[in-house]
Write a structure and sequence with these properties.
It contains 4 helices and 9 strands; from the N terminus they run αααββββαβββββ. It is of the alpha+beta class. The chain has one domain (39-194). Strands 1, 2, 3, 4, 5, 6, 7, 8 and 9 form a 9-stranded mixed β-sheet that branches. A hairpin with a 2-residue loop joins β2 and β3 (101-113). The radius of gyration is 17 Å and the shape is globular. InterPro entries: SH3_domain_YSC84-like (IPR051702), Ysc84_actin-binding (IPR007461). This is Lipoprotein. Keywords: Lipoprotein, Signal. Residues 1-26 form the signal peptide. Residues 110-196 form the Ysc84 actin-binding domain.
Length: 198
């Protein structure tokens, strides 16, 4: 009896954690997983979340604003949500902006094997710093980080300054969770596909 009640408690906790994942990432993201919303509502939610994500990025690293302004294209996923205890996966929707304007919408999906402490949420920003990198991305039918292009996750100093090597990369990434910018993370294996429904 002790074993079954313990399992039920763990199952309930896992379900509650997954259900609250979008809410706990407030301030950096919006819940873009609302599939019952119309395409126009989803686009509005994604764009609002992208604005909030970029604002938080600029607060964490003021130098990032210059990089964003220099980028030929800016892809923002406000909420990439993953969860699971043995086999984990992640999913999120985002917007590609060129010249500050939204031009198309994308989904990102990935998977990982290993212990995951419940649901986790993060925001991802990809900066295409060259016309060639942006063109290759936009012309792809499915673009995988690490396979189709190397994404240099920006190295941020204690004072929010960006490592000078970051400025030399053709695709630069920032990853944030509720606590701020994440260091030493890899987004290799994340597959990004255009969402033709939006």
């Amino acid at each position: 009896m002790f074993g079954s009640s313990s399992i039920l408690r763990r199952s309930g906790l896992a379900a509650a954690t997954v259900a609250l994942a979008g809410l706990t990432f407030a301030g950096c993201t919006t819940n873009t997983q609302n599939n019952s919303a119309t395409p126009a509502q989803q686009r509005s939610e994604i764009n609002s979340g992208a604005d909030a994500t970029l604002s938080k990025l600029y607060q964490a690293s003021p130098q990032s604003r210059e990089l964003v302004q220099r980028a030929k294209g800016v892809l923002v996923f406000p909420a990439v949500i993953g969860g699971g205890f043995i086999v984990a996966g992640e999913y999120g929707k985002g917007v590609l902006r060129v010249g500050g304007q939204p031009v198309s919408y994308y989904t990102t999906a990935g998977g990982s094997i290993g212990f995951q402490a419940g649901a986790q949420s993060r925001a991802t920003v990809l900066l295409f710093m060259t016309d060639a990198a942006l063109k290759k991305f936009r012309e792809s039918n499915g673009w995988t980080v690490g396979a189709d292009a190397t994404v240099a996750v920006a190295k941020i100093g204690a004072n929010g300054s960006i490592d000078s090597n970051t400025y030399q990369q053709s695709v630069v990434g920032f990853v944030m969770n509720n606590a701020g910018l994440m260091a030493g993370v890899s987004i290799d294996g994340s597959k990004i596909t255009r969402d033709t429904g939006l």
